[in-house]
Structure formats: structure tokens, C-alpha cells
Design a protein that fits this description.
The protein contains three helices and three strands. The chain is of the alpha+beta class. Helix 1 packs antiparallel against helix 2.
Length: 105
């Protein structure tokens, strides 16, 4: 499992860099493992909100793969991601008032 996560960490880092460069976040991450004996193992991770946090995505992959481990040796790994929009920052209720006060001065 550790070697799989080592490889997945670098792959996730590349996906997050791509998403960041395009002002996006990752909404889903799908892990496809080609197993020994021509079997496939697919797991999908869906964070609560689209994110660019690679450590959180790796932890979600680790938890998912630990809960549902492959039944045979992993021969190849493919990670695919679906982009999502960054979550909008919620403003406080005083934001408009501060802006109005600043604009009126």
C-alpha cells in the first residue's frame, strides 16, 4: 500500500498543479488499478468541496484504498480527476458596510 501511495502522491501533485494553473480545483479523483491477472480495481474519491489541497486528497485516497484494498497485486495505476470551481469565500455581514463607508469618504 505504501508504494502505491508514494506513486499516487506525485500524480496528485501534478493534477493539483494543473488545476491551480487553470484556476480550478479537483472535485473528484478516480483511481484505476490494473491488477495481476487482468483484473481492474476502481475507486473514486469525492471531497465535500472541490479542493487544491494535495495532502487532503492523498489522505482521502489512503482511507479509500485501506477500506477497499485491491484483491491482487497492482501492476499499473491511473489517476483521473474532474475539475470543479473553487469555493467562493463567504463574506461577513459587515463587508458591504465597510465598503460603503470607504467609498463615501
Amino acid at each position: 500500500m505504501e508504494s502505491l501511495l508514494f506513486v499516487a502522491a506525485r500524480m496528485i501533485e501534478c493534477l493539483v498543479q494543473w488545476a491551480t494553473a487553470h484556476a480550478l480545483a479537483l472535485a473528484t479523483l478516480t483511481i484505476d488499478c490494473a491488477l495481476e491477472g487482468d483484473a481492474m480495481h476502481r475507486r473514486t474519491v469525492r471531497p465535500a468541496v472541490a479542493t487544491q489541497d494535495r495532502k487532503m486528497l492523498l489522505k482521502l485516497v489512503q482511507l479509500e484504498m485501506s477500506a477497499h484494498p485491491p484483491q491482487a497485486a497492482v501492476m499499473a495505476v491511473t489517476l483521473t480527476a474532474e475539475p470543479g470551481e473553487m469555493r467562493k469565500v463567504q463574506r461577513d455581514c459587515l463587508h458591504r458596510r465597510r465598503r460603503r463607508l470607504r467609498d463615501s469618504m
